[in-house]
Amino acid sequence: MNPTTEMQTAVRKKKRRSIRMKRHPGLQRKRRKLYALLLAALIPGLGHLYLGMYRKGITFIMLLLLDISALLYFSSIGMQINVPLLVVLGLLIPVGYFYNVYDVLQAAEYIISRKRRGEAAAASGGDGRGNGANHLFRGERGIAFGLMLVVTGSLLILFHQKPPWLQQGIRDYGAEASAVVLIVIGIWAGIREALRHHKDKRESL
């Protein structure tokens, strides 16, 4: 078979595959969901990047790197808090991994259902945009992502350099700092939940 014939055969196969995808759009969506799942199972965050959720994907990757770096740091220095802390850091890896897989499945399912609604609205004469009030990806906006990158990058540098003052600070103020962080997170979560409840109550009126 000469190169021209091979090229023509490849073009025909590509056209047939394109026609099949247009006739069966659900097949393409299922493949996209499967690819996202495989990438998320391979490396946490890749599935979100494949779906276009770049900030969430980068967040998973950075948190995984931070957890591994902290695990290596605390296992390489001699401190009495090593054992319980290493257990917690070790457990965070599988927890984050399985949550990453679960989250990418939920995101892929949302994207598929949103496209179905858009196609149904377009077929019925609507614009297919729908209501974006409860958008799944609205939490990716804001300055929190930038702050997370700055803090994570700084911690990665500190864990790699291992300055003496960091070990001394963790030994002297580690428990107090952890308590303050937990209190701040609890207050932030409570305020956020209260604001969301107030907003839902106001919209229901």
Distance between the termini: 72 Å
What is the H-and-E element order? HHHHHHH
Mean of all residue-level pLDDT scores? 78
User: What does the main sheet amount to?
Assistant: none
Strand runs, count: 0
How many helical stretches?
7
Shape: flat
Strand content: under 5%
Low-confidence stretches: 128-134
State the secondary-structure class. mainly alpha
Radius of gyration computed on alpha carbons? 24 Å
Helix content: over 70%
Task: Walk me through this protein's architecture.
The protein is mainly alpha-helical. It has a domain at 3-127. The chain is 82% helix and 0% strand. The protein is built from seven helices and no strands. The protein has helices at 3-23, 25-42, 46-51, 54-76, 82-123, 144-161, 164-204. Helix 1 (3-23) packs across helix 2 and helix 4 (54-76) packs antiparallel against helix 5. The radius of gyration is 24 Å and the shape is flat.
Would you kindly provide a brief summary of this structure?
The protein is mostly helical and 205 residues long.
SSE order and pairing:
Layout: H1 3-23, H2 25-42, H3 46-51, H4 54-76, H5 82-123, H6 144-161, H7 164-204
Helix pairs in contact: 1-2, 2-5, 4-5, 4-6
Salient structural properties:
mainly alpha
